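For consistency, the fold was encoded as tokens, as this record shows:
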Amino acid sequence: MRNSPAGQLPAELADLSHLRRLVLTGNDVGIVPEAVAARWDAGKLDLRPLSLLHSVLEITLTDESPAVVCTGRRLTLRADGNVTDNTCRPPQPCIKREGRTREFDRLGRFVEKVGLAPDLFLILTRIMDGGSTRVSVRHKDGSVASVEYQHTSLQQWALEMTIRGSLERVKWTKYSRGSCVEW
């Protein structure tokens, strides 16, 4: 579509079985209807830009271990493609990496597809050291989702592994060392 549509797209777009590509770059259409996103999920629709698939602005994965001072990791992936990774493992200095990813929109869609319901959202507690892993998701409307858990479901594990796995495709551009990071 190159006629500058604005507003919500109709869900009936998903019924156009011969529609293989939908390019909406530069148009103000918000998030595509779930039926259209489901066609993309199934590999039946090439949609541009992929940011129309979700409402996520930022995803943060934080590992903390209160048993060891200054031990932890915070990964932050942003909708603009910027990624930061702060890792602290004493006695070594903390390491900060900065980079770029093209995977954020797929990850944002996955996070919303898995769901943000408490029983599907990742925050797991490790029994041995009392540490925790937390995923926070900030949406375009400013809302933030986070929930505390004592056990890990398969969905929670899959979400954590998907976030960590997306780092394999990050192009790291800046490295620095420093002192302990306050989470």
